[in-house]
Design goal:
By secondary structure, the chain is an alpha/beta fold. 40% of the residues lie in helices and 13% in strands. The chain has 16 helices and 14 strands. It has a 5-stranded mixed beta sheet, sandwiched between helices. The protein is globular. It binds pyridoxal-5'-phosphate (PLP). Pyridoxal-5'-phosphate binds next to helix 4 and helix 5.
Length: 455
């Protein structure tokens, strides 16, 4: 059969409240035109993030009931640890309440003023946690990543020559090298096994550990299987093990590729780093066998890790985004190609060329999607990345709008509705106007900034 169906049946449903455009205009005004400030039950289709929004399976809910809430030495922790280690063979696996907690712990130890942390592209919380210690986060993604039309298969790769040069000139300032798989801020694009291997080799030659931000490791492995020569007949779990065998540690948000609604971990091989991380964990998260999570969360993650590497699921997952991407392209909506693993990224700067970057074309498009169709998407552009630590503002590389797909939540008719909303946005495109920020915090401003529409 040519239709790739949702490989699950629905057992529990959540009603969606259908709002009117007038109601949505009022909600936008109350929210200061920041979609993070909306009440979620005023949203019809919520594509703000794929993080923590997965539908858990019957097996995961059964595991929740098995969760053991002992403060120390819970069997839930050991099931979690075994599940992680079956895919990512690190010596120390330290649970945290979510990904950024793992980042905060790691950078409180290896960061600090004067330090430089290179990566393909740091995600916003990673960058925020690095900069909060006084260190500098440097993005060294390959040049094709900046070309939304380039159909290179691994646009998440790090530029190896630039990494080598940075290590040659500043090795003493670089405590770790990072790679984000898939590269969320760069369009959900994958990193090849070859690039991971070469990055590890360069880092190790300079005596530096490689830390993988593995939030979407299963989607990355699926792309490796589909696109990298010699990988097509290999089981996804084997590819995952190869990806992590070359690294010295990882940060993880279990809210992505572990089908969990909360959770994360920091894993490392180095004993001294692990000891420092556990000391910090006890101060900020909790005892090392629960790390800010309930035992039931650890069990949900353990089962989720088993389910996420299922190839039927991954095929459907990637196809959903391709389906939406193909329809948007047919409407003439520019998107980042090829479509990434967890989301479709619309190139708002190109779609709305009459709105300059410092009037936030991405935010303008995201606001229009909500006003016209009750769809909540996320600006990944100048609002998210344009404010520098010294308070200056510069246009981000690209102004994208991310339509992130929660895992196992929406069906094909939701995707078709999304496309219809875009049809209307295309009709009104010339009337869309930019926005001005009226209040903002000094870091991670996209979460809480307030806007007013221009014109
Ligand atoms: C690539 C990447 N790294 C880190 C994080 C942070 O994870 P969390 O939201 O669990 O703190 C995210 C979240 O979206 C992410 O996409």
């Amino acid at each position: 059969m040519k239709t790739i169906i949702e490989p699950f049946r629905i057992k529990v449903v959540e009603p969606i409240r259908l709002t009117t455009p007038e109601e949505r205009r009022q909600r936008l005004e109350q929210a200061g035109w920041n979609l993070f400030a909306l009440h979620a039950d005023d949203v019809i289709i919520d594509l703000l993030t794929d993080s923590g929004t997965s539908a858990m399976s019957a097996e995961q809910w059964a595991a929740v009931m098995r969760g053991d809430e002992s403060y120390a030495g819970s069997p839930s922790y050991y099931r979690f640890e075994a599940a992680v280690r079956s895919l990512m063979p690190f010596t120390h696996i330290i649970p945290t309440h979510q990904g950024r907690a793992a980042e905060a712990i790691l950078f409180s130890i290896v960061g600090g003023p004067g330090r430089i942390i290179p990566s393909n592209t740091h995600f916003d919380t990673t960058r925020g946690n690095i900069e909060a210690t006084g260190a500098t986060a440097v993005d060294l993604v390959v040049t094709e990543a900046h070309d939304p039309d380039s159909r290179e298969p691994f646009k998440g790769n790090i530029d190896l020559a630039q990494l080598e040069r940075l290590l040659e000139s500043s090795a003493e300032r670089i405590p770790v090298v990072m790679l984000t798989v898939t590269n969320n801020a760069g369009g959900g694009q994958p990193v090849s096994l070859e690039n991971i291997r070469a990055t590890a080799a360069i880092a190790h030659r300079h005596g530096k550990p490689l830390i993988i931000d593995g939030c979407r490791f299963a989607e990355n492995a699926w792309f490796i299987k589909c696109r990298e020569p010699g990988q097509s007949s290999r089981p996804v779990p084997d590819i995952v093990r190869d990806m992590f065998a070359m690294a010295d540690g990882m940060t993880m948000s279990a809210k992505k590729d572990a089908f969990a609604n909360i959770g994360g971990w920091l894993a490392v091989n180095d004993d001294a780093l692990a000891a420092a991380a556990r000391n910090r964990l006890i101060l900020t998260e909790g005892f090392p066998t629960y790390g800010g999570l309930a035992g039931r969360d650890l069990d949900a993650i353990a089962v989720g890790l088993h389910e996420i590497v299922d190839e039927q699921y991954l095929r459907y997952r990637v196809r959903t985004n391709e389906y939406i991407g193909e329809k948007l392209l047919a409407l003439g909506v520019p998107i980042v190609q090829p479509v990434g693993g967890h989301a479709v990224f619309v190139d708002a700067r190109r779609f709305l060329p009459h709105i300059p970057p410092l009037e936030y074309p991405g935010q303008a498009l995201a606001v229009a999607l909500y006003e016209i169709g009750g769809i909540r998407a996320c600006e990944i552009g100048t609002v998210m990345f344009g404010l520098k630590p010294d308070g200056s503002e510069v246009a981000a590389d690209m102004d994208l709008v991310r339509l992130a797909m929660p895992r196992r939540v929406y069906t094909q008719s939701h995707a078709d509705y999304l496309v219809e909303v875009f049809e209307e946005v295309v009709r009104r495109r010339d009337q869309l106007r930019g926005l001005r920020i009226v209040s903002q915090p000094s870091q991670l401003r996209h979460f809480t900034a307030r806007f007013v529409p221009l014109g």
